[in-house]
User: Fold these one by one.
Assistant:
Number 1:
Amino acid sequence: MSEATGVRGGRTRFFWGWYVATGAFLVLAVNYGARYSFGVFVQPMVAEYGWSRSVISAGMSILVLAYGIGGIFAGRLADRIAPRWIITAGASLMAVGLLLTALIREPWQFYVTYGVFGGFGAACMGVVVCNSSVGKWFIRMRGLAIGISSVGIGVGTMATVPLAGFIVKNFGWQMGFVCIAACVLIIGVGLSQWLMGKTKPEDYGLRPDGGGAGRDAPACNPKFFNIPSALPSLRPVLTKSPFWIMAVCYSLAVMAEMSVMVHLIAYALDQRIDKVAAASSLGIIGMASILGRFFFGWLSDHIGDAKYASALGFFLMAAGMFLLLGTTSVATLFVYAILFGFGYGSMSALMPFLLADRFGPQILGSSYGMLVFFVTGIGGGAGPVITGYIYDLTGSYTDAWLLNLAVLVIVSFLILTLKKR
């Protein structure tokens, strides 16, 4: 039999779902590495153009808003066609946006190239497409598989931020955007075409988690473009309270997370912390989030309801924010980064898990895309610009960090009201 079935000569090959998880891991690494390196560019762009931090951070807010809007359409497509075509289009658009960002001269140009192009491109190669694709290949091991793919976010952050910092320091911020664009294009297109070309196991005579194919399993005829006549309905999702509880909780958590990812380096420099240590703190967040994604992915497979794991993740993020309020040393900054990063690692692993657990995997792409619109588009989009505005108004990040602490404490309890299906 062909590779499509995962069976040959009566012997089962390595389950293709793990290839999908690997592809998702690598695509998410380059996507989020490119986005979370943004903090490295803030001060160089302020120095060159004299723009305020709220003007600069608005570019990230526009990107995140476009990411959320694009996630709705990307999620719908992910329920219909193979993810490699969606990811290829997204990687190409994001790379073009980053290349053009190196040529900007006015804020509006930055908002279009980095914000709009980058945001819609990132949506097509983000967690909605990648993690929902992984989730369709697993049931018993869904939490672990999504956790593994989500680790790519942390690996990408840990690897790309220091690299971007080195390039910007030695060759300028424009060259930094050019190099990141090249990585997005090469990895996003090449790996998605190789590893993300299959839809779901049932289309190839397989069962989730690696169940064997039957004798009549379809052979080498992947249904990459077999689009159903009707899209799956989102009505069962949008009319139920669990979806809206998740939307509120994760929107507020991502608002706090994105505000920190954009402004942490600038805050650390304001506290007279060394530039290398300040940039390293984002890498530590990424490294800690790797452990968090593994842990929370594993935990969600072994407890009665994953909402308790989610509450623990939010609480650890809140504990980290409490430490950040009093940070004046490298040691405290790094402890904050470990706590916050470990808790933050819960989010990308648990959102698709909770959705699949409550509403089923059949419309996971569509429901996840809608959730990401609220969570990332609204919550994540608001975080950087609100924090930048508070800083411009008060000359300090203290009030912004207090706001983040308050919302994280609230959602730690609110998520516990989530009802099971």
Note: The CA atoms of residues 249 and 411 lie 5 Å apart.
Number 2:
Amino acid sequence: MVTVEEPQHKEAQPSRQSIEISIIGGPHDRITTVLEEFEPGQKEFIYPLESFGVAPRTITEISNREVEVTVPARLHPTVLDMNRFNLNNPGGGGLGFAIQVYLHAKVRATKSPDIIVNGERSLLMRHYGHIFQQVLDYPGGFEIELHDHERRHIGMGSSIGSMVAMAIGINEVLGRPFNGRELRRIIGYHSCEESPTGNNYLIPAFETGMGAMAGLNGGWVLGTDDLEMAYRVPLEDTKCVVFIPDVPSLEDEFTGKDTAAESEAELLLRRARYLDSLQSGVKAKMLLCDMLPAMIRDDLKAIGDTLFDLTFLGSKRAECEQHGSFGAPIYSYLSTFREIGVEVTGMSSVGPTIFTLTRNEETHERVLKYLRSQDIPESRIIDTAVDNVGARITENGAESPFQSKGWLHG
């Protein structure tokens, strides 16, 4: 385990790089966005609260509190419209849900202004410590320890889950200056991840808000644009199998080449955005007229029927296609799982992670039996369930769900 402390005299860093990506949303919609590397705490990448609709406030009193935070991983079945977000403009809506695979953070407030980090994702931890110091004019510092689920860049939300865990922990030790909706906006407008250059820089990330909605609240969530949560339902007694298929794109995903930076951004901002420009209206109608009523009725099969249709439309089609043969490997698995009898199946985010949801124990066992019959390594199969609690906070040995806090809104 490695502990990293803010150095008083920083060593010379490699020069920062930027990646220019042409955005194509339609035949008359062509612009360029830039993924610019930055250092943790760089002021140009920390935005005033009022710039994204949160009332300014300050914290001057330094506490001596320590909390532990547990956050469920999120899966992200679909985005509503990728034309509604860009760097520093999160949104787009979609669907997300939480599973019983967890990220853990420990945060302690300190009188010293230093930010000391321990565990994994050190760049993210230091940046989030600086964010809360700056937006609150907080004179103290933090000791932060983080452990993610170590399944990175495959659609299981390791980066956004890490940011959610840190934000909750820092917010808690500072006396809860922000409610749930405000935390979601802070996270959304400061979403970032490690640059693939490996030069100890971060890059801005594209964010829909679904990771924070699912991580904070648990359950199955329908989100709309501008990071707003439209509706959330628990999926009680719902088994989940998460499966990481061996697809042509996987080698690069696991080695960190072209993961969430250039190639993924090109996918999101070109073909996926173009297809959503053609079909986002159909997707919105399906979410409003089919998905939402199914959620209200707690009809898992109807949820799955709608999601299966959405999988062939717009940006989700583009995401499936990137894994080879115009999506054939992904669609083959999804079709097989439907034939096996699972109520809900889909691919999470840009993939290649595939999931199944069912309330039938025999169907659940058939999924596992099928995967093992295909000689799928156990390391690629996660047998779990939907998490309906969301984030938990432990202080002085007592654990309480984030949702139970009286200050939670949105």
Note: The chain has one domain: 16-404.
